[in-house]
Amino acid sequence: MADKPRIKLPKEAAKGEVIQIKTLVSHVMESGQRKDAQGKAIPRKIINKFACEFNGKPVFSCALEPAISANPYIQFDARIDEAGTFKFSWTDDDGTVITAEEKIALKA
Amino acid sequence: MKAINRRQAFALGGGFVMLTLMPMAADAEVTGDAAKWIEKFTGGKQPAKGRISLDLPEIAENGNTVPLSINIESPMTADSHVKDVMILADGNPNAGVATLSFTPLSGKAEASIRIRLAATQNVVAIAKMSDGSLFTEQKTVKVTIGGCGG
Description:
The complex is a heterodimer. Chain A is mainly beta. Chain A contains no helices and eight strands. In chain A, the strands form two sheets. In chain A, strands 2-8-7-4-5 form a five-stranded mixed β-sheet, with no helix packed on it. Chain A has a three-stranded antiparallel β-sheet with strand order 1-3-6, with no helix packed on it. In chain A, a hairpin with a 4-residue loop joins strand 7 (84-92) and strand 8 (97-106). Chain A is elongated. By secondary structure, chain B is α+β, with helices and mostly antiparallel strands. At the A-B interface, strand 5 and strand 6 of A face strand 6 and strand 7 of B.
């Protein structure tokens, strides 16, 4: 179905540094407002939740509505206090969850 | 009835124009079901202006992807940080756009997303701080081609 999500963040950061994370996932984000050629409403199918955790602790999350564009792009920040792993998850209306992980190291 | 002279006629005309412009000047009023979303989010409390900078294009050519950036002034410490930010578009079929949840680990209360706008309308952001205080900001975006494929 969906391609691998694209995530951009630095490989390493100084302790206490605030880094920027950019994410993009392929998804139609069907709003439920559109009609097909026969005039029937196309059912809603969107990613309704995005969450980002760092070493198991929540960093940022957002609840999404149909007013989010197709292929949702989300950019946010995170403060790095230790080396570790970011876990990203996108939850679809149908219950499927797209996940991804990225590691970050502390600058020596 | 006393005939009005030219000068008075102008004054009257001016007053009339002011009256008709009044409702537009009061664009702080949010319409439609956006008011319900706000009520639910704030619990009836009146949010204050300020602390939020909401960055949106003045004119969006394509309502299908309108870049939105938001930045809220906050130290983002465990004691004082931004918790939730609700973004609404009052002219969309559903007013809700997104609710962003920050934590002290976010470092900065800053995010960018891309949104759909059905028509020219107000985009409203309301931020809830960790101490319960509320802030709001809004911007009007002119949309050339709507983004809801009606």
